[in-house]
Amino acid sequence: MIKVGFIINFKSSQWLGGYNYFKNLFKCLDNFPNKKIIPVIITDKKNELLQDELLSKLEIIETQLVSRSSLLIKIFSKILIVIFNRNFYLDNFLKKNDIKILSHSGWIGKKSKVLNFPWITDFQELHLPENFSFIDKVIRRSRVFFSTHFSTKILVSSKAVKRDLKSISIKAEKSSLLIKHSLDVPSRSQLKTLSYLKKKYKIENDYFFLPNHYWLHKNHIVVLKALSENIEKIKFQIVSTGNMSDHRHPKHIEKIKKYILEKKLENKYKILNIQ
Fold first, then answer.
1. What are the structural domains of the chain?
2. Which helix (H) or strand (E) holds 27?
3. pLDDT by residue (tens digit) across 184-200?
């Protein structure tokens, strides 16, 4: 049995997609009868994780070495890795807790005593460059460089991402491993009826469900423009959910709401403001 660490140092409200990804991955691992992997969650705060029925059953270890809130710790960690190709403090912590592999959780150096596999989710900046600032593009591109030079292998979740990675760096693509998303489909008994949901959220017509955070690069505006240009033809309603805050573009949601009002789309586009 091998202990594999996964750093979860964010709230579900900040990155629900990532949170659900990890939950589905852990469920998938648990389904193997002869499983050889023991997932261990590494976090800076246990509170929210302990409230989750699935995650609370896993081993959870806490350390400020993975804190997202401390800029000083983050900078110091990266400096150690760039200079020595490992973070001695994090290495010792992982070794103390018998972690052999760090997965989906950033680069910690090729000389680390722990095999490490950072996860690159996508390259949306290549396909929607207008939705990313220059700084965002530099940060996302540097992620490829550092993952290539300071990790064991790079994880990607689709062939499309692997192709994008190759267009950026052949060396990075050769160092990548494809691990597709794992899905957990709930049983019918766990699902609410359609009539219940329509009544609860006051949905009167046929609808198309659009679950996605209101981050600029998620491109909600393209849906709104399509509605605006075909408002007389479309007989259904768009029902949208997701985090309405984009820390990179704080005014984005207000622009979305303004567009809805200006184009008189209130009856065609409904924001439920739930995550």
1. 2-178 (3.40.50), 188-271 (no CATH)
2. helix 16-30
3. 777 888 889 999 999 99
Report the alpha-carbon distance of residue 232 to residue 263 in Å, rounded: 12
Provide the b/e sequence for 10-28 (b: ≥16 CB within 10 Å): bebeebbeebebbbbbbee
What does the alpha-carbon distance between residue 6 and residue 29 come to, in Å, rounded to a whole number? 13
CB of 46 within 8 A of CB of 40? no
Alpha helices in 123-274 (DSSP H): 124-127, 134-149, 159-168, 170-174, 194-200, 220-229, 252-262
Give Cα 33 distance to the centre of its chain: 28
Indicate the SS3 state at residue 193. coil
* Tens-place pLDDT, residues 107-143: 999 999 999 999 999 999 999 899 899 999 999 999 9
Contact 37, 5 (CB under 8 A): no
pLDDT digits (tens, 9 = 90+) for 56-72: 999 999 999 999 888 88
Q: Identify the pLDDT of residue 144.
A: 97
271, β-bridge pairs = 240
CB 173 within 8 A of CB 162: yes
How many Å apart are CA 77 and CA 107, to the nearest integer?
10
Read off the tokens for 23.
Answer: 């939950």
Q: What is the pTM of this model?
A: 0.83
**Among positive and negative, which fits the CA dihedral 188, 37, 51, 73?**
negative
Which residue, among 212, 188, 227, 230, has the nearest Cα to 271 in the 3D structure?
212
CB distance 224 to 263 below 8 Å? yes
